[in-house]
Amino acid sequence: MQWKEGYPLDFKEALKTPSEAEISRLMSRFSQTPRFVYGALMLPTVLKHFVSMPQHAKVDMVPATLRGFKLYKIAEGGLPTIVRSKGETSEVEGMLIFGLDDEQRNSIFELESGGGLTEYTAVQVQVHQKDVVGRYRVKDTRSFDAGTFIWSDHTTHLLTAVATSSWDLDDFLAGQFYENIVKIQNRS
Fold first, then answer.
1. Is the dihedral of CA 17, 23, 25, 31 positive or negative?
2. How many distinct structural domains can be found in the chain?
3. Is 3 a domain residue?
4. What band does 127 get if pLDDT is binned at 50, 70 and 90?
5. What superkingdom does the record give (predicted)?
6. Is residue 85, in this structure, part of any structural domain at all?
7. In this predicted structure, what is the pLDDT of residue 102?
8. Burial letters 58-80, b for 16+ CB under 10 A, else e
9. Largest alpha-carbon pair distance within the chain?
10. E strands of 46-103, at which residues?
11. Rounded CA gap, 68 and 123, in Å?
12. Domain contains 130
């Protein structure tokens, strides 16, 4: 996922590659399976809005990659969804969210599965982590069990394939819906 200058500060912070120690801390603090998100919920302000968190609250999220799935847009709204791919090289970039309580997880479930077009499924995602070994900075990949929502309809005629592995946030960030969420969150 590319970091862009115009992205919200909290999202740019979340996009930083975590250290091995940071990942270990998250794993030891939270026992529930993290959620993998790949659309508007990747933005901390949007996530906080839909799970009723105050804007000043910290969200524990890190960039993650889901292999074996392909990113699509739902025809009219351009909102993203994912479909299990036939090729092993397909992947989707998103964010792995740790530390959601049951009520927050249920809020995401209601939001994502409300229309009956997606279903919750268990997946395994990869997280890049950085570390320092001696004088060298190294990157490593760690796998995590996670939950996410995938397209449940067996037909994909309502979908348009996305050429990249991550959802382009630019139109969403420039839209009125996001602006309204920011206003509401800033009042909390």
1. positive
2. 1
3. no
4. very high
5. Eukaryota
6. yes
7. 93
8. ebbbbbbbbbbbbbbbbeeeeeb
9. 53
10. 60-67, 69-74, 80-84, 91-98
11. 10
12. yes
Question: HSE on the CB side for 82, CA within 13 Å?
Answer: 30
Closest among 123, 111, 118, 125 to 159, alpha carbons compared: 118
In a domain, 102, yes or no: yes
pLDDT in tens, 45-85: 999 999 999 999 999 999 999 999 999 998 766 889 999 98
pTM reported for the whole predicted model: 0.91
For the chain, the helix, strand and coil percentages under 3-state DSSP, each to the nearest 5: 30, 35, 35
Contact criterion met (CB below 8 Å) for 155 and 75: no
Residue 162: give the domain boundaries.
Answer: 9-186
State the Cα–Cα distance between residues 44 and 108, nearest whole angstrom.
13
117-126 per-position pLDDT tens digit: 899 999 999 9
Q: 């000043």: which residue's tokens?
A: 56
Contact call for residues 146 and 96 (beta carbons, < 8 A): yes
The amino acid sitting at 96 is L
* DSSP for residue 42: G
Model pLDDT, residue 59: 94
Q: What is the CATH number of the domain that holds 70?
A: 3.10.490.10
Residue type, 97: I
Which phi and psi angles does 120 have, rounded to 5°?
-75, 140
